[in-house]
Write a structure and sequence with these properties.
Layout: E1 12-14, E2 20-22, H1 26-47, H2 56-71, H3 76-81, H4 87-101, H5 117-140, H6 147-170
Antiparallel strand pairs: 1-2
Helix pairs in contact: 1-2, 1-5, 4-6, 5-6
């Protein structure tokens, strides 16, 4: 099977259960941002050379494939066949946040994204996740989208932030507090 089909050469792409749509369609933007997040998490996983997060990152990547498939599917009968994100998945993210945050100093100020390479990569993933969340909410304003997807992406961004702080703490690198720049 060849990787190229030439079917998208006219600027359209196919959704599952629907005719072709422009590649700039809100639905394509939404699942494309989720795909980008998945790729960034692959980079994060490559930076996790000490396996600080174990199987958590590949598990999140698998869930992102489920999210992308759901966003790319508009046919109700096809949606029924998919593995879909549900409320227990949101609760699982919350459990991970609580577990990782338990050993961290409480936040009293905004922190600058950075620190170790792993933490900086996690902060990058968090910002891509927030963009994916914005794309999904834009789509949901126009077409039906499961509300649990928005909750899950929101919680995932929170988890990625806590993971970045945890990575810095485990490496002995302090989070750098944001200091507002005052005019002269």
């Amino acid at each position: 099977m060849k990787i190229y089909t030439r079917t998208g050469d006219d600027g359209t792409t196919g959704l599952l259960g629907r005719d072709r749509v422009p590649k700039h369609d809100l639905r394509v933007e939404a699942y494309g941002s989720v795909d980008e997040l998945n790729a960034v998490l692959g980079m994060v996983h490559a930076h996790d050379t000490g396996k600080l997060f174990g199987d958590l990152l590949p598990s999140l990547q698998s869930s992102l494939f489920d999210v992308g498939a759901e966003l790319a599917t508009v046919e109700p009968k096809m949606l029924e066949k998919l593995a879909r994100i549900a409320d227990p998945d949101v609760a699982r993210l919350e459990g991970e946040i609580d577990r990782l945050e338990a050993g961290l100093a409480p936040l009293t100020r905004f922190v600058l994204p950075g620190g170790t390479l792993l933490a900086a990569s996690l902060h990058h993933a968090r910002t891509v996740c927030r963009r994916a969340e914005r794309r999904v909410t834009a789509l949901s304003a126009r077409e039906p989208v499961s509300g649990v997807l928005v909750r899950w992406l929101n919680r995932l961004a929170d988890l990625l932030f806590v993971m970045a702080r945890h990575a810095n703490a485990r490496a002995g690198v302090a989070d750098q507090a944001w200091e507002p720049q005052r005019g002269n």
